[in-house]
Amino acid sequence: MARAAGKGANAGLWPWLGLALAIFLADQFTKVLILGYYQLGDSTRITSFFNVVRVHNTGAAFSFLAGAGGWQRWFFTAVGMAATIFIVWMLRSHPGQRLFAFALSCILGGAVGNVVDRLVHGYVVDWLDFHFDLLSPLFRGGHFPSFNIADVGITIGAIALILDEILRVRRGR
């Protein structure tokens, strides 16, 4: 009987792993295109506020620790791998909590995408470049730091995680 319950719990895990895989594949596919068609530093204007670029980020979010000398590659890889193990464990434990599992799946897909970049290239390939004049006081030329699909997945997951917690607190009142 315990074996059947385990199978049921794992059955609930697979859709969430599928979502993470879809984010990972979309991320890696777009990065292969960028690496194939763009040289480092190339940029194509798409709209008045969006460019496709090729940027290599050796750091983390907003190029945090990008100039740290190389050790950060392995540090961020280890953090990403540890997060992956923890997230899969959490997904196995809570597959029925839909918003929570959605959030974790988005973060998982993005984290694995960026870890693969670090392992294969030694940097993360970023290519989405949004720029708005109102950002000029914060970012040079109003350009928000370049990012990729993995980062979008992580951000959506983080927002969903915060929303899930807000909703959980409200239900507890």
What is the typical, i.e. mean, pLDDT?
87
Spatial strand order of the main sheet: 1-2-3
**Number of DSSP E strands:** 3
What share of residues is helical? 55-70%
Distance between the termini: 37 Å
Q: How many strands, which pairing sense, and closed or not: the largest β-sheet?
A: 3 strands, antiparallel
Q: What's the domain count?
A: 1
Separate helix tally: 4
Indicate the low-confidence ranges by residue numbers. 1-6
Summarize the structure.
This protein is mainly alpha-helical and 173 residues long. The protein is built from 4 helices and 3 strands. It has helices at 2-37, 71-93, 98-121, 149-172, and strands at 43-47, 50-57, 124-130.
